[in-house]
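Sequence design from tokenized structure. All designs in this work follow the same two-part layout: the structure record, then the generated sequence. An example of the structure record is given first.
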């Protein structure tokens, strides 16, 4: 008889057993049991796999059926199998009653309603009516209840007067490793990658999320409310990703952060409603160089890895389909199948990829890899949600459109490029070019590669380089949430959507825009936020920067043969000038009212004001549109001129050998004795992309020390970024600038103890004091530093280390034969703000790098956050304490953004810093603390529009000899 599910048989009911059992069968079963029991004890074979071996039972293969209810376990298995089959082809979606919900599934009952009045609301829509002026928004029960004018406040509501401030949905970071690559970086909490195998679809980022990550609170303070936490890119398939809200929960567990838990992850307290479609799953895949490096493979191997994995998953998928076809027939006959629904933990997630139930996010940079992955999608018939990084995607838009089923989105950095071969052809204009091809553009952080707190900065830069206002905002809010599969609840300000909103202090695309408050699930996230500047309520976004005729990007040939010579002239009249912030006789001109003219002839400023009468026929006119003339900017910190692609050894000068780290201190006599042999000048390479891009943004000088993370670094050089080679006249500003050492843990690398490093520095400096300056060897740099003849630059981050260095400086200066004062500079200084007054008293300068606090390592964990989490940022604390300081950056691609960093810190100063001082942080302050010689001519950079805002760019600079003007057309 057919089995009925209404009543399960009792396995202990003897009435269900046959009337009698033959003795021969009984003896056989007893013997079989005696032999089988030890085997079961020593093995992990499931009992159901042994069932068919039992004497007297039928031997059945895959797809065989049972007509009687012989085993209740089999009945339960059959019911589960039918359930799996019924969901086999159901695609993820939104429950039918989702938008009828009365409260969010994440609602915290104690949360009061919030009514925000009179806001400039950007809704996320793409209809041309996305901006609502002077509107209110009501948040309650974790949801957006309504938008409109003059809304009524519910009883007990928190009423917030926005005064016209911008309000947007919360930012959705499409590519983050927050929680799995947590801050500060510690070996015990780095769970971003596994290197067990190139194909690991079964791994889950959820299992490694550290809820104590220092980045959570800081990231929320930048307006980010949700992050898609991806495994890293060490593998072809790194595993499954999970979207999490960044609001702290009372449970303090990773599960409580997950936005929508996929049904394959059993979670207490979450029940699936009958008829609801499955949730989206997410998976991280990767192409190219990372996997090649980790597994010592070529792209040919990587292609096989992918195909092998997809083939295994396809085989499992096909066996599932075959089983379910047999199950359907058996069910019609009132029978059940003996076999379990075919499954495999290793491949089940990849099977869902092939079934279209997973949002695939693929780290893939260049055309070669993009083309290969598009082939995989068509060969195995699965869609891709987004290609990430994808520096060459803008070169092959038609290729992307050939991906199976739909065109993937492209998730990009704004300006981070050229750090490896795959990113060599990256373009600042990629977001604009992709958008012109109707390809969805997403800006992402790859936290902690970029601090996800400042993901907005990526969208701002994309807009600066041409992406429209609406698409720039959508790229971090709406497009990212939609591509990730959450457009039913995130990315828009609509009734019944999650109450994740950000109230800004200015237009979100304006440089330095900062949240006044962030709400997640209707809950206020920043207690007592600090506001660094007056509220700005302008509706218009900043200008898009004009595009040079020949931007430095992919169009150039790699051998430089297509490099264009810039026009150089003797006489130029700048019109539409609003500001001159140069030193010398023209420094007061920054206070002039309205626009004026500046005439430059043969490298000298001859007139400021009304200059038309002095203009000759040969004079070129350049309209600055309310722009400025600033001193040449100085790039300090990155290895400009020493590397092109930092991951390619053949393009990089490579780190300095460190005898202190190796334990071979005798080697110091060879490298660090009377003559220091390691000088950055000996490794310089001119004409690279990093240098030319920095030069075109006004960084006419660079100071670079030999590369390395060890105690011993060497002697830095100052040079002109626009020079063609080291023998060119005026290419070098100063051959030997400063002596460099490092004291600290070097962000996780194995090092000697700090006390050992301090002891070695003390020994070398005291030894240098014993030398007679009148007979001193010119290149005895430790002696020169000990006598204060040359600056000593010390890489240090931690306040405790900086405090010890302050004591050491005083100790050296108190020596009887000291020629104090010594000239010391702290480079890094993330915790220098804790000793700002002590540094000023000790006359120690600081190069703050990076300018915006980022607690990446244990030595930097107390880096001050700045507004809205603290009233002041590090630049302003140092400035107010009287510390002479400048701003630097860690990586080569960042040099060109330093002026924006200075302007950002200036905006956050609450009026305590003037513009000239902010410019000095990236120009004259650095020159003074490193004692760089000044050119007799009035060197300058001319900026179109306000250089303290997006939309500005350098259009003219002094030539290397300071006697002419180079136009950046």
């Amino acid at each position: 008889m057919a089995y009925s599910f209404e009543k399960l048989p009792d396995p202990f009911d003897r009435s269900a057993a046959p009337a009698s059992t033959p003795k021969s069968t009984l003896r056989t079963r007893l013997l079989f049991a005696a032999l089988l029991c030890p085997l079961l004890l020593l093995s992990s074979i499931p009992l159901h796999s042994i069932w068919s071996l039992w004497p007297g039972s039928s031997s059945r293969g895959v797809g065989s059926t049972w007509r009687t209810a012989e085993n209740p376990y089999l009945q339960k298995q059959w019911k589960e199998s039918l359930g799996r089959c019924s969901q086999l082809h159901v695609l993820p979606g939104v429950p039918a009653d989702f938008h009828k919900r009365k409260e969010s599934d994440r609602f915290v009952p104690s949360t009061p309603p919030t009514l925000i009045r009179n806001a400039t609301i950007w809704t996320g829509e793409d209809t041309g009516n996305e901006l609502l002026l002077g509107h209110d928004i009501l948040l309650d029960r974790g949801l957006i209840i309504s938008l409109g004018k003059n809304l009524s406040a519910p009883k007990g509501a928190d009423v917030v007067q926005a005064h016209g401030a911008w309000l947007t949905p919360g930012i959705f970071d499409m590519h983050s490793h927050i929680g799995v690559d947590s801050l500060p970086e510690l070996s015990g909490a780095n769970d971003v990658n596994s290197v067990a195998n190139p194909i690991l679809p079964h791994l889950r980022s959820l299992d490694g999320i550290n809820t104590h990550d220092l980045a959570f609170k800081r990231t929320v303070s930048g307006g980010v409310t949700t992050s898609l936490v991806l495994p890293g890119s060490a593998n072809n398939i790194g595993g499954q990703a999970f979207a999490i809200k960044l609001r702290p929960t009372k449970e303090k567990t990773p599960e409580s952060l997950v936005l929508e838990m996929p049904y394959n992850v059993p979670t207490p307290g979450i029940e699936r409603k009958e008829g609801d479609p499955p949730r989206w799953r997410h998976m991280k895949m990767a192409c190219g160089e990372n996997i090649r490096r980790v597994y010592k493979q070529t792209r040919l191997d990587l292609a096989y890895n992918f195909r092998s994995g997809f083939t295994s998953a396809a085989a499992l998928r096909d066996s599932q389909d075959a089983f379910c076809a047999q199950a359907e027939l058996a069910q019609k006959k009132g029978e059940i199948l003996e076999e379990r629904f075919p499954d495999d933990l290793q491949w089940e997630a990849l099977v869902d990829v092939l079934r279209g139930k997973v949002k695939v996010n693929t780290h893939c940079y260049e055309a070669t890899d993009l083309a290969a992955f598009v082939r995989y999608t068509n060969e195995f018939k699965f869609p891709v949600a987004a290609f990430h990084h994808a520096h060459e995607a803008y070169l092959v838009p038609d290729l992307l459109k050939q991906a199976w089923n739909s065109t993937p989105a492209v998730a990009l950095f704004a300006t981070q490029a050229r750090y490896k071969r795959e990113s060599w052809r990256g373009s600042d204009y990629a977001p604009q070019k992709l958008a012109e091809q109707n390809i969805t553009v997403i800006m992402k952080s790859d936290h902690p590669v970029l601090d996800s707190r400042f993901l907005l900065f990526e969208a701002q830069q994309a807009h600066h380089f041409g992406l429209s206002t609406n698409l720039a905002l959508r790229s971090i809010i709406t497009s990212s949430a939609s591509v990730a599969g959450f457009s039913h609840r995130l990315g828009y300000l609509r009734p019944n959507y999650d109450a994740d909103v950000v109230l800004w202090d200015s237009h979100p695309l304006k440089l330095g825009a900062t949240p006044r408050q962030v709400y997640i699930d209707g809950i206020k996230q920043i207690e007592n936020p600090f506001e660094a500047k007056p509220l700005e309520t302008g509706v218009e976004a900043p200008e898009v920067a004009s595009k040079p005729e020949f931007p430095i990007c992919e169009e150039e040939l790699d051998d430089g043969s297509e490099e264009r010579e810039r026009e150089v002239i003797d006489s130029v009249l700048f019109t539409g000038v609003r500001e001159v912030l140069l030193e010398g006789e023209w420094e007061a001109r920054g206070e002039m009212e309205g626009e004026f003219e500046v005439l430059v002839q043969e490298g000298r400023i001859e007139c400021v004001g009304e200059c038309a009468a002095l203009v000759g026929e040969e004079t070129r006119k350049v309209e600055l549109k309310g722009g400025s003339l600033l001193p040449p900017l100085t790039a300090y910190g990155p290895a400009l001129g020493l590397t092109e692609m930092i991951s390619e050894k053949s393009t990089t000068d490579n780190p300095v050998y460190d005898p202190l780290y190796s334990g071979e201190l005798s080697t110091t006599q060879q490298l660090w004795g009377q003559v220091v042999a390691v000088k950055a000048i000996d490794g310089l390479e001119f004409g690279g992309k990093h240098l030319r891009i920095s030069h075109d943004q006004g960084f006419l000088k660079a100071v670079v020390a030999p590369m390395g993370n060890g105690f011993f670094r060497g002697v830095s050089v100052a040079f002109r970024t626009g020079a063609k080679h080291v023998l060119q006249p005026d290419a070098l500003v100063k051959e030997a600038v400063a002596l460099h050492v490092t004291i600290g843990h070097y962000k996780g690398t194995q090092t000697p103890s700090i006390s050992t490093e301090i002891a070695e520095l003390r020994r070398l400096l005291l030894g240098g004091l014993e030398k007679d300056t009148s007979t001193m060897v010119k290149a005895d740099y430790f002696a020169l530093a000990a006598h204060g003849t040359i600056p000593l630059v010390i890489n240090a981050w931690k306040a405790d280390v900086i405090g010890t260095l302050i004591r050491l400086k005083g100790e050296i200066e108190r020596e009887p034969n000291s020629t104090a004062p010594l000239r010391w500079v702290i480079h890094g200084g993330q915790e220098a703000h804790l000793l700002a007054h002590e540094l000023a008293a000790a006359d120690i300068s600081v190069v703050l790098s990076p300018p915006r606090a980022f607690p990446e390592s244990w030595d930097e964990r107390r880096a001050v956050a700045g507004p809205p989490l603290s009233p002041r940022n590090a630049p302003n604390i140092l400035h107010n304490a009287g510390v002479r300081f400048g701003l630097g950056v860690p990586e080569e691609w960042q040099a060109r953004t330093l002026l924006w960093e200075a302007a950002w810190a200036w905006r956050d100063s609450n009026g305590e810093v003037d513009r000239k001082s902010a410019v000095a942080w990236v120009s004259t302050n650095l020159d003074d603390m490193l004692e760089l010689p000044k050119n007799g001519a009035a060197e300058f950079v001319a900026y179109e529009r306000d250089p303290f805002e997006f939309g500005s760019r350098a259009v003219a600079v002094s030539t290397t000899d300071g006697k002419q003007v180079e136009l950046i057309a």
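The first helix runs from residue 23 to 42. We note this feature because it recurs in several other targets discussed in the main text.
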